Amino acid sequence: MQIPEGIVEDQVLVDLIDLNDEVGIGTTRKVFGVKGASDLVIKESHKPFHYSNFVEWTVWHAVLEMAKDIIGNETNPQLQSHFARAVAISNSAKFLVMERLQPVNYLDQTQLRNFPSWLNDRKPSAFGLAEDGQVKAMDYAMVNFYHVLNPLNNSSPF
Ligand SMILES: Nc1ncnc2c1ncn2[C@@H]1O[C@H](COP(=O)(O)OP(=O)(O)O)[C@@H](O)[C@H]1O
Ligand SMILES: [Mg+2]
Predict the structure, then answer these.
(1) Is residue 18 a contact partner of residue 26, using CB atoms and an 8 Å limit?
(2) From ligand 1's centre to the CA of 115, what distance in Å?
(3) Whose CA is nearest to atom 11 of ligand 1?
(4) What is the rounded distance in angstroms from the CA atom of residue 14 to the CA atom of residue 43?
(5) Distance in angstroms (rounded) separating the CA atoms of residues 96 and 43
(6) Averages of pLDDT over each 10 residues, the chain, 158 residues
């Protein structure tokens, strides 16, 4: 099945939700498998403002942008390997399609050190294992904007 990419109608993603495959539930979202794509999930937001899906979409694209060689920027191609890929989002942001990861029960401090300091949710359920064994963040909506937006906070290696 052809899975859409980018910004699409809400209904397009509603039609792809596999209601028989409940992957997880969080504070703002329910996560389901995707019909015809065992390597993806759909995150359905239940808040009036679909902040978490919107932030993950924005963060993923910012991370992709960092890999590009843009004049005046220091290229950071590694960071994208630490985040589950965001594939599609619906117009309202209620639905987000993301790379499916396998749960991890435990993460040691060395593994967490690879993640930027602006990532606030550092509990094991926010991370998972990709097909190639790479540990990635899959709930990365809790960005510490206070930290990120202050130009004086430039101490992070990322
Ligand atoms: N990309 C993913 N792959 C596999 N499971 C996921 C993925 N994203 C979320 N989950 C599962 O669904 C749960 C809820 O998703 P999460 O992103 O944490 O939602 P919330 O923002 O509401 O906390 C997670 O704890 C995890 O078990
Ligand atoms: Mg969560």
Answers:
(1) no
(2) 17
(3) 24
(4) 10
(5) 5
(6) 94 98 97 98 97 98 92 88 98 98 90 90 94 96 91 66
* Cα dihedral value 92, 41, 32, 101, nearest 10: -140
C-alpha dist (Å) from residue 77 to 16, 80, 111, 124, 147:
31, 7, 18, 24, 22
Residue 122's DSSP bridge partners are none
Let me know: does 121 contact 142? Beta carbons within 8 Å: yes
Amino acid at site 3: I
3-state secondary structure of 99: strand
3 state SS of 96: strand
pLDDT at 73: 81
User: Are the CB atoms for 67 and 74 separated by under 8 Å?
Assistant: no
- 21 CB under 6 A from ligand 1? no
Q: Is 101 in the pocket of ligand 1 (CB under 6 A)?
A: yes
Check: pTM over 0.70? Answer yes or no. Answer: yes
What strand order describes the sheet that includes 17-25?
6-8, 86-90, 95-99, 37-45, 29-34, 17-25
Mutate to test the pocket of ligand 1, among 89, 97, 139 (most ligand atoms within 8 A of CB): 139
State which amino acid sits at residue 150: N
